[in-house]
């Protein structure tokens, strides 16, 4: 039997690596297309892109089960797709169409699907944290085997309700995995200008909560770390906080000119681009060559275009939709 290939002393699997590569590329192309659609005025309002942060999304999602719950902020188009919502339904939601995953009423910031256990898409910074704890309470109450993943931005960590939610999560011991996407900025403000500590994982100490910090620009690092972390939360039914160091290449939202940081800083992170890193690893291991990379890119660009075409063909929501899903007890 042939010995398995290893990379940086970890056994690697071609199928898994190719799958993660294709997913990251899909999410990059999806966001580029969303950006284009926005600039072509196919939709308006807000549009926050996740370009540069793909490794975290894919590395985490690869470790989850379909019955796990995910909840996030507004930078979550592709986190919704990773959780299983079809890309065409996410694109249709961007365009405010009836076949969007939130029936066209949510838009870019409010992707949602009960079926896929993706509970938003929240525009209130940090608003997802108390909801995540409530969901994790339900998991324990109903004796489910699921966990709740709650993504938060670095700036969200300075919201009062996030402290309160983490305190209750640790006190009641509920299975919520808080993942801080530390991309160093909250809108145009660098995190060090608003925050007294150098690293946000230290906040977990205040709640006696297990914690860690990872380089989230490398998908294999994320995957290896999250495998054991997700398993820990599932087994012990208690919260865990991961500070994931990442970077967004684009502005806070599409309308941000990005004058608060230098071109050099952005380029420094782009040299460690997650897609590029995995591409180099795949080539080094002889798992894929340039022809494969080109063919996958072509195929993925087509798939994204098809998602957009589906969204454009979808009719706008019916007027009656204004009254549906407004109150919880609606029949
Ligand atoms: C409660 C609240 N305060 C302020 C805002 C305005 N606001 C929108 S995004 C944002 C920055 C959040 O940054 P971060 O949590 O780091 O997430 P990122 O955008 O970097 O993903 C702010 C202050 C808001 N939406 N909600
Ligand atoms: Mg941020």
Tags for this entry?
331 residues, alpha/beta, Rossmann fold, two-stranded antiparallel ribbon, 41% helix, binds thiamine diphosphate, binds magnesium ion
Q: What's the CATH superfamily, by name? A: Thiamin diphosphate (ThDP)-binding fold, Pyr/PP domains
Q: What's the shape?
A: globular
- Based on the structure given, which CATH architecture is correct? 3-Layer(aba) Sandwich
Beta fraction of the residues? Answer: 5-15%
User: What low-confidence regions span 5 or more consecutive residues with pLDDT below 50?
Assistant: none
Structural class: alpha/beta
Estimate nothing, just give the exact number of structural domains. 1
Give the overall pLDDT as a whole number. Answer: 96
Q: Helix count?
A: 10
Rg (C-alpha, Å):
20 Å
CATH class: Alpha Beta
Order of helices and strands: EEHHEHHHEHEEEEHEHHH
Give the strand tally. 9
Largest beta sheet: strand ordering: 3-4-5-9-8
CATH topology: the name is Rossmann fold
The largest sheet is: 5 strands, parallel
The percentage helix is 40-55%
| CA(first)-CA(last) distance | 60 Å
Ligands, deduplicated: thiamine diphosphate, magnesium ion
Give your account of this protein's structure.
This protein is α/β, with parallel strands linked by helices and 331 residues long. It has a single domain (10-313), classed as Thiamin diphosphate (ThDP)-binding fold, Pyr/PP domains (Rossmann fold, 3-Layer(aba) Sandwich), CATH 3.40.50.970. Helix content is 41%, strand content 11%. The strands form 3 sheets. A 5-stranded parallel sheet has the order 3-4-5-9-8, with helices on both faces. A hairpin with a 2-residue loop joins strand 1 (6-7) and strand 2. The termini are far apart. The model has no long low-confidence stretch (mean pLDDT 96). Bound molecules: thiamine diphosphate and magnesium ion (MG). Residues 153-155, 183, 185-186 line the site of magnesium ion.
